Amino acid sequence: MRPGAVRNMENRFSRTELLLGREALDKLAASRVAVFGVGGVGGFVVEGLARSGIGALDLIDDDTVSISNLNRQIIALESTIGQYKVDVAEARVRDINPDIKVRTYKMFFLPETARFFDFADYDYVVDAIDTVAGKLAIIEGAKAAGIPVISSMGTGNKLDPTALKVADIYKTSVCPLAKVIRKECRKRGIDSLKVVYSEEEALTPVPPEEDSVAEKAAAALEKAAAQGLECACGDIKVFKKRQTPGSVSFVPSVAGLIIAGEVIKDLIGDK
Fold it and tell me: Which of 121, 115, 137 is nearest to 36 (CA)?
């Protein structure tokens, strides 16, 4: 066979097809996944799903790219600072696969905004947001609709990506956020929930050297507290101390790709 003939047989998912097969790729192309939160974890979930051949994505996030996102978020570049994260993510996945269908929602997901979403529209739901109330609303919405959901626990103040695990929420340990979610799920009669969490003890962040940075972080957390929001940074004590969590490039990204892998395997029925 001529080299040119081999090249003509290639397509953007030909290497994936070698592992998963055509039937699996067809399932993925027919699937719609909602990703709530397109930040450090969620951005890499979106990346992994788009590069695996998911046919449709709903991206939900009200935030814009900031300079402090550059150290860990795949959508964060000097050229994207100030843009809505969902818009940047949409442009990126369309550049990966022009055939992908994308719906974006510039919205902060909370119980009050849950009415705008019909979870039955989705084949899978990913929770990668930072507030306990919002996470629980996503989980409850997906469970009520009978749609599989996977939830990201805290990745802030962590340095060891090998400590990340996939488990049912009731089999988690160490992670303070997982403890809160376990308690709340039990109250709500939710008997199972797939999560990605870390067994690494959270580190204590070093205080910022510039007082202005510390003051801005404290003000933001005070505003969140006034709105009844809770911190999901990986260590609840950090919120109480009004310190912004530290984060690096190689923990949220790994968590996001693990989640993407779980979604793909579940959608194609590969246990």
Answer: 137
